[in-house]
Amino acid sequence: MLRKIRITLATLFFIGLTLLFLDFTGTAHTWLGWMAKVQFLPAVMAINVVVVVVLIALTLIFGRIYCSVICPLGIMQDIFGWFGKKARKNRYTYSKEIAWLRYIMLGLLVLALLAGIGTIVQLLAPYSAFGRIATMLLQPLWQLGNNLLAGIAESADSYAFYSVDVWIKSLPVLIIAVVTLVALAILAWRGGRTYCNTICPVGTVLSFLARFSWFRIQFDEDKCRNCSLCTKNCKASCIDFKNHRVDYSRCVVCGDCLESCKFGALAYKPYKTHEPHDPHETHETHDPHEPQSPQEQSRRSFLLATALVTTAAIAKEEKKAVDGELAPIKPKAAPRRQTPLTPPGSLSAKNMATRCTGCQLCVSECPNHVLRPSTDLMNLMQPTMEYDRGYCRPECTRCSDVCPAGAIKPIDKEAKSSIQIGHAVIIAPHCLSATGQDECGNCARHCPVGAIEMLPSNPDDELSPLVPTVNEHRCIGCGACEYVCPVRPVSAIHVEGHEVHKEI
């Protein structure tokens, strides 16, 4: 029964989270957005105390069910592991935990948070790894299928579907997603939960709590026949059938061992301390009144230090034609911005670098094709803004609605129209109006906040050619001017970002 409940809940979470990344209409978030907000690391980064406390309580009561039910990367590993078990049954063996590697990975994550090195955080975060795979590999396939249905519907004079652009948002992040998927598939195929119990920092944090969980997998030594089926079917390699021991820090409560046991020697029930049959046998658990071993003291001290350091780290359009829709806009090259653009609601570049986990949910949800993963080495995979395929529409708040980590704060449409993320800069030698080639005025006509005006090039001569002039105090940096500028390959006007956003 435990295994069936786990599989049912895991299936619901996996399908729901995958749909969040695949959906480009914004409807899935209305019903399923909470699934992203209950992921452990994003909840910690967002200082979502309620979610963090609930996840900790679940772990202290039931063990590491988060890893097998809620975490999409853990569920994906179970899928690969299931295929591995189909290829060869009873494939697992017991092995001791590689504690030094787990602690190094956790320490690396904490140091990266302190130093603001987002790339390391995003590479280690399990939810972010799943997000990259879903956005870079699965969403394009989903969109291609949608476009096929749109073509079929159009031939039948139906508009039940509409076509969308399918494009590579970032080649480096695509490569990282492919490598991550292949590595996870191999590890899960061969060793089950190898990644969760050796590399994943979230798994390491939860492992400290799982040692003291109330419900645990326990042996009935009188019924056990030492057949080893429990060990051979344990994807976490944490069951030592010879000594009738379970490493609760690695057990993800999947229930496979309970189903494989033919003698009813295993049970998932409240834990009770008991005297071992062998006086020389030692157990991981001990009476709380007994003196702690140096190893246990160091582990608890490490957990406390990690919690303190992590708390300090946390505190610290669719493509359209223009000008009467007479001609489509041709692709253009992105300008070299001195300061990258971060989405409205992110408050500042520092807040984005500190809190963003690079899960790609905002990138996959952006309906205007503005957000894409950064290629900057220090902030690789964090969202940045480019206006070669669209502009940031003042009425769109999709990215702030879906961000689970607090990197993009929730804002409404009214607030977004007053947030200045950057300002437009005109490159006069490239401008058609400024060089006298043509009185273009595209940027002024399409500015949604009226920050660009066409004024006489000679203030003393009202009949002189009109040139665009930017009111920097009014400009919000939406990029409409940059998007519609007809100059190629680089626009004659582009937006420079602000390190700290302003309200105007």
Model description:
This protein is mainly alpha-helical. Helix content is 45%, strand content 11%. A two-stranded antiparallel sheet has the order 1-4. The longest helix has 30 residues, at 126-155. It is elongated, with a radius of gyration of 27 Å.
What labels would you give this structure?
mainly alpha, 21 helices, 12 strands, two-stranded antiparallel ribbon, elongated, two-stranded antiparallel sheet, 504 residues
Largest sheet: 2 strands, antiparallel
Q: Please report the distance between the alpha carbons of the first and last residues.
A: 58 Å
Low-confidence stretches: 275-289, 315-327
- Rounded to the nearest angstrom, the radius of gyration is 27 Å
Q: Care to count the β-strands?
A: 12
Helix count, per DSSP? 21
Q: What would a concise description of this structure say?
A:
By secondary structure, the chain is mostly helical.
Question: What is the secondary structure topology, with strand pairs?
Answer:
Blueprint: H1 2-22, H2 27-37, H3 40-45, H4 49-62, H5 65-70, H6 72-87, H7 99-115, H8 118-124, H9 126-155, H10 171-191, H11 194-198, H12 201-210, E1 215-219, H13 229-232, E2 239-240, E3 245-246, H14 256-260, E4 266-270, H15 294-315, E5 321-322, E6 327-328, H16 349-355, H17 361-365, E7 371-373, E8 383-385, H18 398-402, H19 413-416, E9 419-426, H20 442-446, E10 452-456, E11 466-470, H21 480-484, E12 493-503
Antiparallel strand pairs: 1-4, 2-3, 5-6, 7-8, 9-12, 10-11
